[in-house]
Amino acid sequence: MSPSPPSPKAADHPVLAGVEYHETILEAIGRTPLVRIRRLSQDCRCPVLAKMENLNPGGSVKDRIGLAMVEAAERDGRLKPGGTIVECTSGNTGLGLAMVAAIKGYRAVLCMPDKVSSEKVNLLKAFGAEVLLSPTAVAPDSPESYYSVAKRIAAERPGAFLANQYFNPANPQAHYDTTGPELWRQTGGRITHFVAGMGTGGTISGTARYLKEHEPRVQVIGADPVGSILKHYHETHELSEAHTYKIEGVGEDFIPGATDFALVDRVIACSDRDGLNTARRLAREEAIFTGGSGGMAVWVALQVARDLAGDALVVVILPDTGERYLSKVHNDEWMRDNHLLDPSANTARDLLSAKSRRVPALLSVQAGEPLKRALALVEQHDVTQIPVFRGSELVGTLYDSDILRAALGDPTAVDKPVEGWMAAPLPIVTSAEPLERVTRLLAARNPAVLVREDGAMLGILTRFDMLQFIAGGE
After folding, report:
1. Could you tell me if 460 and 429 are in contact, meaning their C-beta atoms sit under 8 angstroms apart?
2. Which residue in 62, 246, 328, 355 is the catalytic one?
3. Domains plus CATH for the chain?
4. 178 burial class (0-12, 13-18, 19+ CB within 10 angstroms)?
5. Largest CA distance in the chain
6. Binding residues for pyridoxal 5'-phosphate
7. pLDDT-derived band of residue 402, with 50, 70 and 90 as boundaries?
8. 62: annotated active-site residue
9. Cβ-count burial of 204 within 10 angstroms (0-12 exposed, 13-18 middle, 19+ buried)?
10. What is the model's pTM?
């Protein structure tokens, strides 16, 4: 069952007598709360609750299995005092094991794919673990894969124990003993749908077994990133070719023994774009900070909830904190560089900030100025449209084609006021305008829009600016 809450205990120091406290950080694992997803689920008739595993002391659901696998190995005699814990991990299980190793006095050697964020690597080292990185784009049976490296280290080092989370029965058992009972108690047995990301399969399998023993009608839905083979295997029992994807810590290119596919009713695939942008929306709209796998799980939970009646109750596992992904999913530049940024999750100000790194945000002329002033701006900055102001009032627009035509047709035109070639003013949006609406304006025969904030004009956004922002170009 779940670890008991802090309570007065027989203390080894008289001052602690009667004080409620945990003897070590390991006793704080589990008993995470359920939090309702409100804004993102506004179009759902039933509530969607998130199990906040990011609030575990190590910041992820993997704290549960880190402790459980070590304790099982101690009981079985596979791990003895002074031994070394070895594991292949995308980071979170490694942190759970590193925490246990630090408390219990073991060494920890953790093998990871090189696609993991630098935050995860540095975090593991902070707990005293040795970290070895391996290439991501190799087959699991390659000698270079992080699976193979972990096996080799475990075989070569005396007293080493390979945690082997993918095939360790203590992995799903930890969730049968803790996560499942917690969900059943927290929901009063009213949970109807359980959603979890699929990686090792321990979370979904152990929790599902407990829930279905208490209510066989509970539906269990796995979330799998596009590129992983788990959805296809669940539906066909056939292996398929895996493809690379950006969401970390979920999906596989082989079949983990810790997964009991018979307990999973269906698997829904989620793209990198949907999963990662949902993680960003959770932070901005729900103040829930999670990584890409959490965004993926919530995206799948919302797909499920939209088809359900109001008497259903969907619970989704939020597996880890977003702090490990500040350089990736929660970094605008990384998202743009990987062509994953969702314009609907950003505002006109976001796009202007990105543009200002390349050129001045707003180039304009005043009514009455000579056309050669506008011509100089076109030549210097390669712009195609220039707003015309009379004081602070927007009165028109100059286009490069009209400026060029005038200059070529009449050499004296460049000395005449710009009003003679001025077209209608461009549309104006506020800096808080969602890029989704800005995109619609640009697609509706408007080559550009102006952005205003607190009465002042901040800049101009063009179709080219929008394309560069989404695609990550410079």
Report:
1. no
2. 62
3. 25-57+169-325 (3.40.50.1100), 62-162 (3.40.50.1100), 343-471 (3.10.580.10)
4. buried
5. 97
6. 92, 199-203, 293
7. very high
8. yes
9. buried
10. 0.80
